[in-house]
Design a protein that fits this description.
alpha+beta; Aldehyde Oxidoreductase, domain 3; single chain; globular; 3-stranded antiparallel β-sheet; about 45% helix
Amino acid sequence: MGRAAGNWLEVKEAVDCLEGHGPSDLEMLTVSLAANLPGIDSGRALIELASGRPREKFTELLAAQGADVDSFEQQLNKPAMAPVVREVTALNSGVVVRCDALSIGELVRDLGGGRQTKTDTINPAVGVDQLAKPGEERPAGAVIARVHAQEEACAEAAVARLRESVVIGEELPDLGEISLGSVD
């Protein structure tokens, strides 16, 4: 879901979605969930999303909770929060047949974006974005992800791990449904 993994990168992606230009799968799920609210159908949810009002409401909620909205907006406009950003490129041409969410989540944790023990400190800047999705074609040399890390050595190790997590092949995978259903 989406193209980012890691605290700040996911926040940026969520804001992009609220502004109507997030990843299509995330936007579809958002509209689908909103359509389950009383008095809202998917058509109205799409209209609301395109109106910009959800982004305005999000900003209001930040301010109501005491956030420094100006600092938040400034950070959103920066290309990255982490000091080291490295592109991961496809080694061969083909279609993305697998994007292993578990191994990517573990990679983000190991970069410092999650905890292994309750005393571990979380670094909100690290993670992965621009993830290629199963079913997408990528020529050799094309970006399949970007790593955001605190140090160069961590970034290089993450690049190698991502190349194992995002698999390029020849056969289009069975993509399945974005959502299996909902609980009433």
